[in-house]
DNA sequence: GTCTATATGCTGATAGAC
DNA sequence: GTCTATCAGCATATAGAC
């Protein structure tokens, strides 16, 4: 089993590749980053990149994957809360926190169609993300108005959090503002200071 | 002045080209539509397309332009309203109406980075769209919370209106739901039936 | 002023040698 | 696991016909 040891050379190259991809994607966008650029930065050829990932889309998916897994975890935690109010607050706070912490990534998601498709594919499995989020935020039988409201909130928060307009804001400020906007939109009562 | 008559051959080709581009963009997305496809559909060569528009970006800008001009008009009308309440309702209703009527286009805007850039360029002129919208919806001195709230609303409405999830909804249903969500988020009082 | 023919240097992707 | 070689298709560009 020596060849299955954690730190094989291939694993290392693969993670180096991913790290390089994230950096270049953030700097030039996904569309503005070619496999050639990634390969050059790594000191290998394009074909070597293709050994680790069959397509460019697969790279963007791999970049997005960790954040999506975090999101699933937030949903699990939120669903485990006892009261409806706690479920809503936990889901909203977790979602906002993810957006703020992964701002750069979110900005990428918002502007690149390939990443959006990758997310869609990941989210439309049996563990449908959007359905779960709607259930958490608008209850088990939300109706059309509820579904649309949740859609507007989630899309709005994600786009706003990733927008370059607010990239100078520190995490805490952005997080608390987005959270309060979300709460207000969901009709949650005001909290004490 | 005969050569400046309205219906020159070039003008006709140019508008046919634009109509074809809109259709193909809607079917295959901007990235999925090549200049070759547009040229073939028109029965001309790629170079002919290139004669009318210097770049592909210029085509996407031209596709988005009419809707953006409509938006400017909505802002002008809203600003001309007497009461703050009427300004807010007019701006919101106009924005939502635009999104719903141009749903296909909005969906394109939301998924294509090139179109997004084109819009940005158009909107960040002296007549800054976002600043005007914030002033209309959150008042002349909105503060950070106000700016963020408006951003979340506008982004959320646009993304939701263009989303494939709701493409089966008829215009009136979608419009009224989006409008109500927006009003609620802006703290506007309930209307009578 | 409007278009065709042709070419350049990219891109993502594949096949096969080492 | 990484290489070289090669592919078709892309946006873009220019020269020149009419």
Automatic annotation (TrEMBL), chains A, B:
Keywords: DNA-binding, Transcription, Transcription regulation. It holds the Pfam family TetR_N. Residues 34-53 bind DNA. PANTHER family: HTH-TYPE TRANSCRIPTIONAL REGULATOR BETI, HTH-TYPE TRANSCRIPTIONAL REGULATOR RUTR. GO terms for molecular function: DNA-binding transcription factor activity; transcription cis-regulatory region binding. SUPFAM superfamilies: Homeodomain-like. Residues 11-71 form the HTH tetR-type domain. This is Transcriptional regulator. It comes from the Bacteria.
